[in-house]
Specification:
It is a single chain. The chain is of the alpha+beta class. The protein contains 16 helices and 25 strands. Strands 21-19-18-23-24-25 form a 6-stranded mixed β-sheet, sandwiched between helices. Strands 10, 11, 12, 14 and 15 form a 5-stranded antiparallel β-sheet that branches. Helix 8 runs antiparallel to helix 9, helix 8 crosses helix 13 and helix 10 packs parallel to helix 11. The longest helix has 62 residues. The N terminus and C terminus are likely disordered.
Length: 657
Amino acid sequence: MNNGGSRGRRLKRQNSWLAWDSRITAPFIKLDLVIECRRLPKKDSFSNADAFCGIWEAPPGVLNNRDKQKVSQLPNKQEREIGRTEVVRENENPCFEHTFRLEFRFQEQQCYVIRVYNEDLRYATDLKEHDFIGGCVFTLGELIGSPGCAIAKPLQQGKAYTVLMGQEIVETREVLEFRFAAASLGSLDHKAKKQGVAQGVANTMSDFCQFYFRLEKLLEEDQSWTVVWKSEIQVDYSQTPTWQVARIPLQLLCDDKPTNPLKISVWEWNRITADEFIGFVETTVRDLVEQARRGIPVFDVMLEKKKLLGGTRLKKNGILKILKSNILTIPSMLQFLSGGCELDFMVAIDCTTANGDWREDKSLHYISDSWLNDYQAALIKVGSVFDGYGGEKGYIMWGYGGKLLGAASNSPSYFAMAENIRGADNLVKIYDKVFAADNKSLGMKEDGALRPIIEAAMFRATNRNKEGRQCYAVLVILTTGAISDVQDSIDTICAAADDSPLSIAVIGIGESDFVDAQKLVGGEDGKLHHSNGVPIARNNISFATMADFGGNARDCVGEVFQDVPEQFVQYFMQAGIKPLPPKAIPDFTYSEVFGKKKSSSSTTTASSSESVTSKTSKSKSSSSKSSKSKSKSSSDKSSSKKKKKDKDKERKSSSED
């Protein structure tokens, strides 16, 4: 259950009176993968290929050298097979009917391997018995970030290639919008049960009741109930609370199955003693929606009570009113991306003196040949998540709390390390160049102000989201916790939540207490407030530290990125922006898929044709010159012959005379 950042979940465990935030997006997006192959070679002498393909889930490290290494004929032990398609016989362009159900999680780099085989021995399950045609590697982020949610990959052998298309399952967009009220909650003589508490405290607590409810779903594995959501606490003097409207995706409530059991348990919150269980209602999402269409349904709140002679019996302990219950279809992040929405990425590096001198081995910025520091590890994982969503202009990396001679800067508080960056490897290369031991142009400061960085990110995100284009940006801040303008930064974050398509992910580096950084994500009530007292319009910031995850950059980055899809959709819904129509799937012709090879060959052919044309032009010019000289010589000969004839005629005439 993902209900917010790590700090938010810690607060919910420590303070049971905090409500869990409503959600309008599911934790992951379900989609069906459709596979097609084209231009498959003949493996038999007299017929086309009898092709089938399989898909395996691979660890993220397989992408490090995917351009240099070929896909192996057989899967290794680290790959997990998901399934295989049917066999399409005697077809060089097979379209497989069997699809694969995948779950897209934005915060993870999900790698898959496709292998295509020609069936050699019918009904044989061992892949060694079949002829290997080729394979490819791709990520779900690369697929979802492409136009029309479709990509084409060469099979690394010959001229064959495969086309991969993702089709979203619409059920993952469904959200239950509901509002509950209760009446006549008995609370089992809670006044008598508080006799163990000091009399003065008991008297003050007996004047009013504080009720909340929890939604629980039944796990199929062990048939146990697990909490999926918790409401706010309503203070009531007459035991008739009415809670606020909330939205929860069906994927969380019932695993996208409206007929699955759902329990609504009502509790009374106590500050000193344990919370008191009032009762429960067992129902289903379908039952709630269907009965709400006919009016305001009422359910009995039942409580198990022990009998005098043993055993238990259910006792009515109040009623629960369903004031509102209907299913909404909310656009998903995938729907916006399929319509051409771009995802921009920005990163800011802490360059304050809190890191230590980068040339010393005790510094957080120290670069070693044998291990990665936390900055490098975080950059690799962050960049790998965004590799599939590269925009037209690439990414940008800033440094704050320092200065770099010769670097572009619009503020004395930060500077640009590089722009138009593509790929996680290039992020690390630029970082290594800036913090190299022989770099004398870098200077560190004591103060690290975040407000100028956030304002620059807001400006960049807002400018890209104009003129009919849709764009959403994510700013990643790697910090040691040394923040000199906490309240100004909070005010800027609140302003960004109102009108900027921006999410902010803060990752703590080092072993400090991060007191200032924790203030950026909210106070004790879990909400962030502007200096004027107004709460933040939407949650747009998350925070986690590398130390909380034992230096595991993958888990830390996954923690701060897990709420980005929710924040993404919340912004567009709040702004009243609908997703654009999905882009058409490209044709993926041979020249498009093998464009690089084709262009290189075309350039060589063009150069060769130019040389040929130059040779032919030279030969033509030489031939023309020779023909001209020949024509001149022939004309000279003819003129000399004419002169001889004229002389002979003159001689004859003179002799006759």
